[in-house]
Amino acid sequence: MRFSRTNDRPAAIAIKLVYNEVLQPLIMKQINYHDVAWTEQKSPQQRYHVSRREITLALGGKKDTGTWGGGHPFDVEMTRVPPGAANWPYHLHSAQWEFYIIVSGAGELRAENHTGPVKAGDCLSIPPREPHQLRNTGAEDLVYFVIADNPPADITHYPDSNKWFIKPQRKFLTALEVSYYDGEE
Known about the structure:
11% of the residues lie in helices and 38% in strands. It has 185 residues and is mainly beta. Strand 11 and strand 12 form a beta hairpin. The mean pLDDT is 88.
């Protein structure tokens, strides 16, 4: 399509919009993860205890938001679990993939059909619908990177407590099984 002088302005506006909204945010960014502050999260009885360096957020990403919402296509964080603690309650994601790289320490991976040791150098690829949990069984912190894709929606199930977490709404629920037409007629 050729633009004439009379309609060049809309084309210029469209090109500027595409650059500002799509291309400009894609400029490469660099940080050193040692400069990212640790944030700590623990359960009331400290059975679950992690400290995290949220690297993607430090690079300008948005929490739990992929490219569909102006964020990055994946989240990267460095996680530290102290001795005796687990990272999170045993859970599975309906849509999200996770990839763990164990940097230091020793622990135990609990999965649906397997419980076994993990150590520095191990890499774990966890597909959707695979329940998992890491627990530090060593004497020093268990440190690992986790890389997770950012699906637009995800449902996390916690089999031990039969809880559900839905995203993007960020709500925890318990559910009762009902028939398809329950409450409809």
